[in-house]
Specification:
Layout (H helix, E strand, L loop, with lengths): L11 H15 L4 E8 L1 H4 L3 H11 L12 H16 L3 H16 L13 H4 L2 E3 L2 E2 L9 E8 L1 H9 L33 H13 L6
Antiparallel strand pairs: 1-4, 2-3
């Protein structure tokens, strides 16, 4: 059994899925378990914990001394993107409302049955971001199996996988990373957008499909 560790911060699962996709593409008989977990709610309980987080993600010489925090740096990126692309605060709010609508009806969601109010959305935290727009601090875990369709059917026939379990077909996968520190980022090209384009290219699908 080969073991691989992927540590890309918040993008770790995406990077691991891409690696699993590549392994299965090169060996259709491969079965790859992708598992990840994070415990920010249990770990980050003191101001010193948050300070250590800032020291990890912000440059000690060019960012921390100027009051940089993780959410503040994201806000700077968001404001520049809004200026250059025409994205508005209303667009951000529409996105948050869409995902909260999904969460409200999902018993497994952290925001289950928690209505979103205009007061919450109109109370800025950093730049265009209000509290409902930032990541939820909670403990969480994720696990899934990646394999070929032929191997999946073989595992079902052997009784290893449940026949009626839900399966998602992965047509393409990719990931991209940007500069380690904010001040090193020269352009606004989004790693998420770059990874999406590569995934589309691998899948053979066009956006309109």
């Amino acid at each position: 059994i080969g073991c691989h560790m992927v540590d890309l911060g918040g993008a770790s699962v995406g990077g691991a899925l891409h690696q699993a996709y590549s392994l299965v593409a090169s060996d259709p008989n491969a079965v790859v378990l992708v598992a990840a977990a994070d415990v920010p709610k249990s770990v980050f309980k003191q101001v010193s914990d948050l300070k250590r987080l800032t020291e990890t993600v912000c440059h000690k010489e060019y960012e921390i001394d100027y009051g940089a925090t993780l959410i503040a740096l994201y806000a700077l990126l968001a404001e520049r993107q809004m200026s250059e692309s025409g994205i508005t605060l209303e667009h951000h709010i529409d996105i948050v409302k869409h995902f909260r609508k999904n969460a409200i009806n999902n018993p497994r969601a952290f925001q289950f049955e928690k209505e979103l109010t205009d007061k919450q959305l109109n109370r800025p935290l950093a730049g265009p971001y209000s509290t409902p727009m930032i990541a939820i601090v909670t403990d969480h875990a994720f696990a899934t199996l990646i394999t070929s369709e032929k191997k999946k059917q073989e595992l079902i026939d052997k009784g290893i996988l449940k026949k009626d379990s839900q399966h998602i077909f992965l047509a393409g996968a990719s990931h991209a990373v940007h500069a380690e520190y904010f001040y090193q980022k020269k352009f606004m090209a989004s790693p998420a957008a770059i990874a999406s384009e590569r995934a589309f290219a691998l899948s053979g699908f066009a956006r309109e499909d």
